[in-house]
Amino acid sequence: MEVKIEASAAGQRLDKAMAELTDLSRSLANEQIKDGLILVNGQAKKAKYAVKEGDVISYELPEPEVVEYVPEDIPLEIVYQDEDVAVVNKPQGMVVHPSAGHTSGTLVNALMYHIKDLSGINGVLRPGIVHRIDKDTSGLLMIAKNDQAHVALAAELKDKKSLRKYWAIVHGNLPNDRGVIETPIGRSEKDRKKQAVTAKGKPALTRFQVLERFGDYTLVELQLETGRTHQIRVHMAYIGHPVAGDEVYGPRKTLKGHGQFLHARTLGFTHPRTGEVLEFTAEAPAIFQETLEKLRQG
User: Fold this and answer.
1) What pLDDT sits at residue 64?
2) Distance separating alpha carbons of residues 297 and 291, to the nearest angstrom
3) 8-18: string of b/e by CB count within 10 Å (b at 16+)?
4) Backbone angles phi, psi at 108, to 5 degrees
């Protein structure tokens, strides 16, 4: 793998630049520098080397950790199920599928216990998973129980025909009752672990409608036309109204809860076998509803 240093990164230490510009952590970058696996213009350098504009740095991505998963008897609300699809209401705080940092307790572990047939298109780590929501976002997800259903549901998502509406409590008082946010989203150039509105990003479109105003906070309904990583969180922060409780994109002083107040409330799609249009709604979790009541009471 190679990365070329641009003017914005020039002057940084080599290890820091690698952590920001690649998927390597700073500690892993340091290990590779010591082992001579990171080369600057073909030469080994020390971690404190100040990178220059135009430097070409070669590095190696470590082999991904092999993660095994097992069915786990985790409580799971299955809103709908037939031979082709299922709809589940993911609780806040649950990761969707296993990864190096989350090998158990995920939605996939629960799905494998409660639903015997799952599509295999996304491989062994993501059986049945057609789309994702963040760990601390609650709400509805469609699950494919066979490959044919998976292909059809994924195509509908790609063609922007699925219905996905979220509720969020956001900071501030939005000036308009409804609107459209259409700005591209991609990996942040300042912090590689975050997403951001960037000219190099992919097109992203979010529609919003104000449901209730509380002065310092607003309850909004948001409809996704695209499905970029952290899309709602990035778009709302971009227009100056970050999602309350969002530790990554919002302010430190915010509403207390279990992460961002964001809930995938409505999900609609065409059934892959029958052609029937299905629509489901799940009420927001208790902490979300309790917080709304407190805001209403001032």
Assistant:
1) 58
2) 10
3) ebeebbbbbbb
4) -60, -45
Instruction: Pick 128 or 209 by higher pLDDT.
Output: 209
**pTM of the shown model:** 0.78
Percentage of the chain beyond pLDDT 90 is 82
Contact 291, 169 (CB under 8 A): yes
Q: Is the pLDDT of residue 225 over 60?
A: yes
Strand partners, 196: 186
Q: Are the C-beta atoms of 115 and 81 separated by less than 8 Å?
A: yes
Indicate which residue of 84, 134, 136, 246 is catalytic: 134
134 in active site: yes
Closest CA to 90 of 135, 56, 130: 135
Judged against a pLDDT cut of 80, whether residue 66 lies above it is answered with no
* Per-residue 3-state assignment (H helix, E strand, C coil) for the chain: CEEECCHHHCCCEHHHHHHHHCCCCHHHHHHHHHCCCCEECCEECCCCCECCCCCEEECCCCCCCCCCCCCCCCCCEEEEECCCEEEEEECCCCCCCCECCECCCCHHHHHHHHCCCCCCCCCCCCCCECCCCCCCCEEEEEEECCHHHHHHHHHHHHCCCCEEEEEEEEECCCCCCEEEEECCEEECCCCCCCEEECCCCECCEEEEEEEEECCCEEEEEEEECCCCCCHHHHHHHHCCCCECCCCCCCCCCCCCCCCCCEEEEEEEEECCCCCCEEEEECCCCHHHHHHHHHHHCC
Question: With the C-alpha atoms ordered 14, 16, 19, 22, is the resulting torsion angle positive or negative?
Answer: negative
13 versus 121: the higher-pLDDT residue is 13
